[in-house]
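ERR on first pass: missing label on line 2. Operator R.T. fixed the label and resubmitted. Corrected input:
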Amino acid sequence: EAGVAQSPRYKIIEKRQSVAFWCNPISGHATLYWYQQILGQGPKLLIQFQNNGVVDDSQLPKDRFSAERLKGVDSTLKIQPAKLEDSAVYLCASSLVRLAGGEQFFGPGTRLTVL
Amino acid sequence: AQKITQTQPGMFVQEKEAVTLDCTYDTSDPSYGLFWYKQPSSGEMIFLIYQGSYDQQNATEGRYSLNFQKARKSANLVISASQLGDSAMYFCAMREANTGNQFYFGTGTSLTVIP
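pass 2 clean. output:
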């Protein structure tokens, strides 16, 4: 079974530029999560999708961040314009069930550096 | 209030010894799941072990066991017979069934195994 795929793995941009990340979850996983992990901290949930609907985006900085999950499969996360404090690893995860017992499977992450 | 608290920023253990990583949680949801993830320096998040709130017995997975004390709201991870490859960040996480299944992560504990 293929895991969660993310691309690119690394991205370096200048502040005020735009960037987009892509995630392909494990086949059949209805729930998809985007996390931001700043160096030395735990992952912080940015947005959670159930199929192609948003379940929780309360911590997504909506003035600059946007995400979509068309057709309930792949997802993209965009930052426009980027700020220095957006430098972090962006993790995508998916899970099979909505019950409390379903663990998340994580992708390798995208390491973003904003200069 | 923090949903997940990990009070040990860093821990050291001698190879082949056992180590306990602390985790306390805060929830009023009767249905929840507790998870431990390992994050090596390469960055991927690896699922280790799961404990459901209604599980009567402590979860075990190979050298990993979860010391679940429901009344104290603690879910400590015990790693037996530590190996050099266990050196990594360890994150405790909780998923509540009645809040959209959002995952809450702690700040992590950095474990170093000494030869």
